[in-house]
Specification:
about 350 residues; alpha/beta; Rossmann fold; 6-stranded parallel beta sheet; 11 helices; about 45% helix; binds riboflavin
Length: about 350
């Protein structure tokens, strides 16, 4: 009896020690680094990226995540991504913005084993890289159409002039070939004599500069400004409040950020795409080498028409006209292809 007890205790002790050792020495089964080309705070697409990857990691046991902010010195991004790849500790590097495919492609030449998932970017044919982007022609078209409806409305902040603004952090091919033209087309289909005042901040953080630009635009007749400038977006809100005018938000539901000032908001479901594609990568099912695009029909791009602030602040005729154009895109009666570049 005594011998059995001793053996039993020994067994319990050993199994306890063994399980302890396993935990201590256990390597996470799938390690992910998220590289933020900028900073997370204030940048809608990066906030969505982190949210989506975090969700994928927490729903797969054994997966782990490290978020690395690259900051605003764009010239240093490639070096940081290279140093992440050189550690050979990450099964996957996830990142987001249209400049990242080229940077990751360069890193991939030196570290061909390193796998990449890039959101909001486009590249096909590299067996280590998967990209997913959004139909921002559709997204910007909807924002433009809404801005056209607002500037020609009887809203208190709408002047007689049919002028709309767009403030961006910097120019880049997706902006020049999809977002800006989509926005202009949207304005003109709502109000044929609508014009666009387009300004560039020069970076993604200077809210004071953005406020200065926005004040000038409002003072020259713009009733609503679409702002795509990261942390600098806050400056546009400040100016709109001062002038009693409107802001249009991009990428993430923005109504709550400045109720009554953010008149309209589109969103891209980058968090959903990041969750889905990261999950596939963890499960070993992501088809590297390919690229995908998600738009209105696929449910990755939408104008947020069901927010209580939108419903209470926007007149019914504006909401009705906007919903009609959304339906046209959903039904395929209006085709807004992303240009190939
Ligand atoms: N968007 C942000 O909100 N914050 C940024 O810091 C930011 N940096 C960018 C840097 C580069 C080089 C490029 C090409 C785009 C950047 N964007 C940034 C824009 C972002 O990728 C996206 O195009 C817009 O948010 C519209 O969806």
């Amino acid at each position: 009896m005594k011998k059995t007890l001793v053996l039993l205790s020994l067994f319990i002790l050993l199994s306890f020690l063994f399980s302890g050792c396993q935990k201590e020495g256990a390597k996470a089964e799938f390690t992910i680094a998220v590289f933020i080309p900028g900073v997370v705070a204030g940048s809608p697409t990066y906030e969505l990226l982190v949210k989506g990857v975090e969700k994928a990691v927490s729903s797969h046991s054994g997966a782990s995540l490290k978020v690395v902010e690259g900051g605003f010195n764009q010239g240093a991004w490639e070096e940081t991504v290279t140093s992440l790849a050189s550690t050979e500790s990450y099964d996957l590097i996830v990142t987001s913005n249209p400049a990242m495919p080229e940077i990751c492609q360069n890193v991939s030449k030196k570290y061909p084993e390193q796998k990449f998932l890039i959101l909001d970017g486009h590249l096909k044919g590299n067996p280590s890289i998967f990209t997913f982007r959004f139909n921002q022609m559709e997204q910007a078209f909807l924002a433009g159409h809404f801005a056209g409806l607002v500037t020609s409305s009887t809203l208190p902040g709408a002047t007689n002039e049919h002028k709309v603004g767009l403030i961006v952090g910097q120019t880049y091919p997706d902006m020049d070939r999809a977002i800006r033209p989509g926005f202009e087309l949207g304005i003109r289909t709502a109000v044929p004599d609508g014009t666009l005042d387009f300004r560039v901040v020069g970076n993604w953080y200077d809210a004071a500069k953005a406020a200065e630009l926005a004040r000038d635009m409002y003072d020259h007749g713009a009733d609503i400004i679409l702002t795509i400038a990261g942390g600098a977006n806050q400056g546009v809100i400040t100016a709109a409040k001062e002038r009693g005018r409107y802001v249009s938000w991009f990428d993430i539901n923005g109504y709550d950020i400045a109720p009554g000032v953010i008149a309209g908001s589109t969103e891209i479901l980058l968090d959903r795409a990041a969750f889905e594609k990261t999950s596939l990568a963890i499960e070993g099912k992501l088809s590297y080498g390919n690229s995908e695009i998600g738009g209105v029909k696929e449910g990755y791009v939408r104008f947020v028409t069901d927010d209580p602030l939108y419903l209470s602040n926007m007149p019914e005729d504006v909401r009705k006209a906007l919903s009609e154009i959304v339906v046209k895109i959903e039904k395929g009666e209006l085709n807004l292809e992303m240009p190939l570049f």
